[in-house]
């Protein structure tokens, strides 16, 4: 698919703009203040369906006409949204069957957002109608530079269990299994618990039932739900593309700690501009690691620069305790996203709401107005992004890849596992964190991706893997790469069938090990790994079949059994980590792996200083983010320029003040 380009100069800056929440006399002040803050693009119309279409097929564009004209006059570009995340009340009164049904069979009511069934024909028809009307009216408006399709697909309605969804699920299954019911029965293992199907109409969604549902049934359901929402995005996008063939389209992903409903590897190729919403978990003491991980995953999904569509200037409104950001955190957070590839920084929302469900969510213009720390920080950030305009279009370069797969994540976290404490994101972050602390650049890859540009590939959590992906990963090591695999990986195939003959299933031969029994650990339980090293969460009875033991269990039922192994495979090396080592031990293991693989950090920095590199056509851009409470000195090239300070660096060293950021341009060639 040909990707259309966002036509906004430099690093785009702005947020969700909801002027319909305010009297018209406020709008001019908004645009004036946007100019003061350096805003260049805002998203408009996201939740305005009820005002744009007050009755079926009856449109009122007068308000939107004025808003877009005002933005254009003020030099502000518009990312014009289809308002389909929040259908109006009149729609549900006419189509109550379009309301979603939960797993327990309760039909939910309207009165919030995303209160629709993704498989509803009535919803699809109405959504395409309003999208088409917007496309026809605003395709040539000079303010409109991009289509913002829907908002946060699947945030509240990723799954609907109604009869319409059941029928759509069956259609999806007939396509997946080539209309072969016997193939489905085999894939689902339906001889277990007398679940054999003799007719497609017998198949229903995995609704609430008395015991554990069929795992492959549940996995296919997750796949279907992701694809069903993707089909809605594609349908709206195509309507808009017909009206305005040259305008790019996007929708906002949610690559963050509490969302896993959509397979974004399948979604990303369908977006012209890949964009994301990212919010911090208030209980995370090192949320900067979550920002980095999310940003690296987004850059990998996009295959280069991406757009941060939403994050917060301060507190959100939907966590048990919604804390404000500390001094300097707003700036560090935003510039950390830029460091990881964001070519645009936007917030929810421009002006803090005085009414509605998100009235206590922070904004660029807070309730306190311009006499506030948030506003001063927002204005400063606008100046920072303007100074970084030349960074746009540059991207990262990594020698380490972490395998990330939504199918594997979904399958791992289904019920009836050896331990429900094993969580995909926890495992990935535990391996990512030491690399982040060491300043090592990381990409995320699909298991079937081209790995030829990497020296070290890590699979911390790949419970499910098909034969082709297994061959791809093991061939990487055969050709001279270093492959490290975490416990409970390679256990099942794409149908959730256990790979027989011993664990870790698909990777057994390449790793040179075989496990005959799993010993998950209880909460709080530890095992020794020699010296001060310990491990938690998991252990296995590992047998060496060609590999060497790097560390062994020193106590418990597996005392003397290998815990971490290393093996020569082809011209490369494979590692197996059969437990969850303590952070220092895992960091030491990863240090050894990357040293053997010849992987170097972006830059050696003092503790607490994050170093990230974006590579441009003629220069590198070194981002140095000081998360600590002490000033730090970092070496840069002799001809470097401090872009935020707007002056050359003297003496080949920059001082990164505590809590601050330096971006150094280092010319190449």
Main attributes?
669 residues, alpha/beta, nine-stranded parallel sheet, seven-stranded mixed sheet, 28 strands
| Uncertain ranges | none
Give the averaged pLDDT, no decimals.
97
Percent helix, as a range, is 25-40%
> How many helical elements?
17
Number of strands: 28
Spatially, the strands of the biggest sheet line up as 5-4-3-2-1-9-8-7-6
Give me the Rg, rounded: 26 Å
Question: What proportion strand?
Answer: 15-25%
Shape: globular
> Cα distance, first to last residue?
34 Å
Largest sheet: 9 strands, parallel
Class from secondary-structure proportions: alpha/beta
What does this structure look like?
- α5 (121-138) runs parallel beside α8 (215-243).
- The protein has 669 residues and is α/β, with parallel strands linked by helices.
- It contains 17 helices and 28 strands.
- Helix content is 30%, strand content 19%.
- It is globular.
- The mean pLDDT is 97.
- It has a nine-stranded parallel sheet with strand order 5-4-3-2-1-9-8-7-6. The chain has a seven-stranded mixed sheet with strand order 11-10-12-13-20-19-18, sandwiched between helices.
- It starts with 11 loop residues before the first strand and ends with a strand.
